[in-house]
Design goal:
The protein has helices at 29-32, 53-72, 90-98, 111-114, 116-132, and strands at residues 2-4, 17-21, 43-46, 77-81, 101-105. By secondary structure, the protein is an alpha/beta fold. The strands form two sheets. It has a three-stranded mixed sheet, with helices on one face.
Amino acid sequence: MLLLAYIYVDGTAGNPLLIYQGASESLKNTWIDDLNITDADFFTTSPNGWSNHDIGLKWLKTSFHSNIKGKAGNRTCLLVLDGHSSHINMAFITQATEYNIVLLVFLLHSTHKLQPLDNLFLGLLLQSTESLA
């Protein structure tokens, strides 16, 4: 299983997307019945359990853009990504441009060293909670 997740600069989290390995018929409603989530776009499948061009583009349209437009309005947004091909392809880049989203792409296989959420947002949160103790 793979999780696509994101966090806004204000610290709130966006809707995650879980990708299961298998055919689309293998995504059983019983897997998600207890989660009380009405939007089926939170879950999908792929043959290898990884993201691909279609899943990346669907995520951009149905999850990221649909959620960010309420916060950003007509302002330009920055989306920081790793270098995976599911979101570094012409369809994804073109759609992001149409949505007024600027893409900042890390080098492929570098996010495990950079850990932007751990070192920036979550690191600051940990520091602030430690100072309260």
